[in-house]
Structures
1.
Amino acid sequence: MAFVRVEQRNGRLASAVRIDSVKGKDGPLTKGTVTVISNVRRGSGDSRDEEATAIQWTLWGKLAENAAEYLGTGSHVNVVGRLRNNNYQNAEGKTVYGLSFVCEEIDYLDSRATAEARKAGQSASAAPATSPASQGNSSARKGRKAAALADDDIPF
């Protein structure tokens, strides 16, 4: 019998969501992996320290597909899921100890404008250099788009 515990973390993504296709009994499944870093404060008074915890979560199906589409490095999220004890006997008969974190719910905590600005910043750093004339037109479009998004500050 595996021990199951509900876990909740509020933090930021350390990297983009990694998507894989896994063979399931009913056909291919989408599996996503995301690392969430959260800061926890320990102690009290002057000895209060902040500790960063990084947890790698596994997402499945539509949850993984949506996360890959809308989240990027630095996105602020709240993740709720299960922590499972994955102990097993290997081929040599030794017990291997492991934990897995499976995401059941992920809340997008950034506003739409913040998410779009982050996505535009990530794509701009990955895009090749263009001519100055095309950069002027592109920045004007981005400015209009950002102004339109600022009016709609509703989270995902």
2.
Amino acid sequence: MHGQRPRLNVLTKLRDDLHKAMLKSSAERLKRPPGQSRPWKFAKGEFIVHRLGDNVYPDFDEGSGISNWFKLETFDFYHNGLEGILNIEYALVSEFSRQWASLEDGQIERSFPTGFWVAKVFKTGKIPWRNIRHFDLMGDDFYRCPHFYCLYADNGMPYEGFGYYLIRDNVSYELELPLADRVTLDVLLSTESTKMDVQ
């Protein structure tokens, strides 16, 4: 237990340092346009993730697996680290329950029963403090934004998990879709409420 305290203190300091360095001032955050999402509070809108120990940047490692470095849009802090936007995807959400399912490109234009709606979502990667081993907020000649040097310690990735957030008006987001409520599309469409609706 006592051996964990120094590492906990290091992670707490990392969190506090990044909160202080990456966020806009309180006065700037008060000027946020109506309806804008939380990324508005960041001084920089993107950051670079490097695999710790990589010596190929700015070139790319041709090996298999996730890239040795990549750029993400800044999304938010979460309780255990920093979150960046990976891409925009689509999901089918049920009005009958909290359940939802991811949609492939070919499924977006399908007609679905009443009570289900297609939503655009941000997919995010959640990088925990424990995987961030060094950072440079000034950047370099290639990318003048924060650079993070990370352990790819979770299944060969820097992420400990992913998030899915509903997008509103193509700009902001409302809430995170709980991963515990994610099901396959077939399961979502086979609910009793759906069966009753289409009879």
3.
Amino acid sequence: WWFIGNEYWGMAHYLAAFIVSFWSWRLTHNWYRSWPGWAHEDWRYVNFRKQFGKHFEWINFSAIHLYPTCIVFLSLSGLFYLFDGAQSLNGIIVSGSLIAFTGTLLELFADNVLFGERKNPEYQIDICVRKGLWGYSRNPNYLGEILFWIGVAWIGLGAGAPIWTCAGAVGMLLMFVFASIPMKEKRLSESRSDFEQYKAEVPVLIPFLRKRNLKGH
């Protein structure tokens, strides 16, 4: 976008470009510092390979690679309406940028806590992490990712994008709520001895949104 149309760029373009770049820098940095080497295979691939057997390859292609790729492109579609021409800064673009930036910060802080804990010699692998944001949400990194894509969609709307461009953010929300979070929590229930207590005390996604039992406690 910079090389094909930077003569149109104003504050709105630079702000959106920084937001998306900041998100990508955080993602790449967290992957790089946590990557154990070529021999490592993500636990989701391992589970899928065991679960689906001979059907693994096409499920791997469609569910793990193709769907996320399509949903990311769809989620970014609103930004084409911003970067394809001149666009002045407005309140919707600013608020969308703040939402996306806040989401990225949540991911950054959540990832930093996990990284620090795993480097801690006293880290207990069978106990849930409750430090920082993990004491307020069981999935603060996923919450941050959802907010990022909602913010991107909101930026697009501020640039005049049609409502259908929000479908990507909706798809992201559905993917996390009905696929990513259930898969992760199932794994934690099998590997963390205190997960049921953690689940009862900490909301799944939105901080302070706790369930009340019949006695009101």
4.
Amino acid sequence: MTADTAAPTKADAIPLKDIDRELQRQVVTTRSGDRGPVQWARMSNLVIYCDRAELAETVQRAVPQIVGVHPARVILLVAEPGPESTPVTAHVNTWCRIGPGPHICSEQVTLRARGEGVAHLTFAVRGLLIGDLPTNVWWAAPVPPSQGGAFLFDLTERAQQIIYDSFGWPDPARGVAATAAWLPRFEGQPGKGPWRVASDLNWRRLKFWRRLLAQALDPSTTPGALDSITEVLVEHGPHAVVQAWELVSWLAARLGWTVQGGRIQPGVEIAWQVRAPHGLLRVRIDRRADGPSELRRVRIACAVNGQSTALNVQSEEGGTRLSLVLEGLEVAARTVTVQPQELAELVARQLSDRERDPVFRESMEVAQVFAQSVLR
């Protein structure tokens, strides 16, 4: 939220039919002087689903920064668990630029329900969407979208994109397997049915890791490395196992590896034997017990110009930089500056990116095979 933006004020719950009237009232109360007509800033509808009140509070703190980059009509859904059933209630907030220049506003409608009333949230959303704008659904619940069932189907009926985050999934192997199977069903085939895209924020977090690893393994940079890999080790902090899983799957998809078998030691290590064009190699994902909840290090044992070495890529300086070092070789380290990876920044950038990523789809197909090998 910028310094010249008015923060939303607390408001009482209102009937659904009074939402537009309350939006207009709040905008009028923020106006002062002779600024002319109000201009609504909306690039899309952004529907956000949270499955508990505490999560909604975290998401709420990110919304002002998101709409600062990607103005939208925000519809925040809060489905509270519990045996008691309550109907859908609404709260309305507006963000308005009150400094010099036009009076520009964005709005948020928060819908809450409990128990059986949660099923009615999707019906309330339909009446609030602005019809000539694209619709993005942010599935903020910490469970795979493949578990969303009929609720998610109804919620995304008119959506062009669903954004989810595989960070912290409670059962990574089953979550990856189920989501990989769900992706082609949700997106469908090009030219058949509505255009829909599914995007994982974890995949966006891997952008700089993938870029540096691709450069490190380029034959013109490290001759012979690709054809001599014997082991890949990926280390991650707590809750970041799916992030590591997606990176391993990307490597396998790009380099033509096939899974021969795997084993899992929950919370400690996942290991696979993989066949590459040059022979068998070992792939491991290890969990560090503490530290930042993110990817920490990738070590690829190989040979460069016939000399044994290992490519070491690791996160440094609080995750703001990646460094590449070749073990045992007199080669200068290479570093890459990493852009901010805060939740609001990731979501804001993804909202305008509604193109399908074939590399992501290919990587998830391989990730499904990795998952099935440890679930047998």
